[in-house]
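Slide 14.
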Amino acid sequence: MKKNAKTSKNLVSAQSSSPKKDEESNPTPVEPHCRKVLEAGVNEIGQLIKVFSLIMADLICERLTPQLANSITNAGGKLMKAEELKQKYGRNNPGQDGKELRLIV
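Slide 15: predicted structure.
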């Protein structure tokens, strides 16, 4: 009898000290700060720099997964590369600001 009482006592203490599964598996989602800027659209290099800065902050605070941050950063890098190619190889059009780059001729 003493054995059973001791075993049941250990089970109760183990159950009470373990965290609830619902709280652990379903944490409240926190919206990343970079989302607002990205949803508004990135039109200037200053906005892109702000997004990259917010992504770093969101990563540190665990509001973004590393995979999602990597995807966003890669897309931003491709936008910068497209703008670089436009400035380097684009043609000036009369009556328009900036250069135009045609990808298909």
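Speaker note: Confidence is low (pLDDT under 50) at residues 7-23.
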